[in-house]
Amino acid sequence: MKGFAMLKIGVAGWVEKGKPKPGPIDAVVRPLAVGMCTSDIHTVYDGPLGDVNFIMGHEAVGEVVEVGREVKDFQPGDRIVVGAITPDWRTIDVQRGWHQHSGGMLAGFKFTTVKDGVFAEYFHVSDADMNLAHLPNEIPLEAAVMLSDMIPTGFHGVELADMGFGMTVCVIGIGPIGLMSVAAARLRGAGRIIAVGTRQACVEAAKYYGATDIISYKTGDIAKQVMNLTGGIGVDVAIVAGGEKDGEGLLQAIKMTKAGGTISNVAYFSTGETLPIPRNEWGLGMGHKTIKGGLMPAGRYKLERFIDLVRYNRVDPSKLATHVFHGMKNIEKAWYLMKEKPANLIKPVVIY
């Protein structure tokens, strides 16, 4: 089969590989639509995982083509969503409550790290009954593909913060994940939602999803701007969904969060050995500011809950798909579009 892979650090291209086969509890899926993610770009061009040769991509909806003999709830022909994270569910880590890290830190993230991803004619899914969810026919493919990663990750930024009604929130970075954090903050009952971003397409989408204020890093230090907006008080919650370079997003989040507040990180820091914590703004280490960071929740149960949010019009992620291509051959075009990030881009999607 054909796939779009990381050939070496800094280089991606087409490869030929054998079609995967399912184990007893697994499935093989034919993609119907795939989404490009910034973390794919980081993986290839920053090389945090080393020089690997895996097919790229971790966001897909598809059609089951083959299942293992022990799979109960899925059969060939079923339309499905698969999460970007596909944990091993029979592990001690799951019993500890950390399915994302089943088998070790971040080990639930298998596509492109320990196995081929979804930018191919077929891809393999482990533990199909636990990692797939049935896709209702009424959800368009360009919306459905956001259920793999963008919604779970963006919403996890709000889940980590344990946000209460009426809180003031700042979302740093309003790419597709940050936009879903804005939408989740609104659904969770936030009062004021400050969004940090510059690209006009993202700014307009942030307003649509519930942002009350927009600020730009191009007009000055964002923490200072947030402090000015809040009368010097700061925010209850800062969600880091961007600013990965040199950990700047995390640094600014700590600065703008009030004592006793929460910094929630869903950004992917792919370079550097350490991340910055500002001493004074962290209250010399005693400011009761909680810093959390987490990999998106996974598994069939969460997927089905997110599907219902889309199905019953609580959130419309299709607005993230600003560039929709048709045909697998256009993966390469969508890939480089995501790498370049023009001003009118939020996210490219390829419908097979």
- Write down the overall mean pLDDT: 96
The CATH topology annotation of the largest domain reads as Quinone Oxidoreductase, Chain A, domain 1
β-strand amount:
15-25%
How many individual domains?
Answer: 2
**How far apart, in Å, are the first and last alpha carbons?**
15 Å
Report what the structure shows.
With 352 residues, the chain is α/β, with parallel strands linked by helices. 27% of the residues lie in helices and 23% in strands. α5 packs across α6 and α8 packs parallel to α9. 51% of the residues are buried. The mean pLDDT is 96.
Note the topology.
Blueprint: E1 2-8, E2 11-16, E3 27-35, H1 38-45, E4 60-67, E5 79-82, H2 92-95, E6 123-125, H3 128-131, E7 132-134, H4 141-144, H5 150-161, E8 169-172, H6 176-188, E9 193-196, H7 200-209, E10 213-215, H8 222-229, E11 235-240, H9 248-256, E12 257-265, E13 290-293, H10 300-311, E14 321-326, H11 331-340, E15 347-351
Keywords:
6-stranded parallel beta sheet, 23% strand, globular, Rossmann fold, single chain, alpha/beta, 352 residues, Quinone Oxidoreductase, Chain A, domain 1
Short description:
Helices cover 27% and strands 23% of the residues. The chain is α/β, with parallel strands linked by helices and 352 residues long.
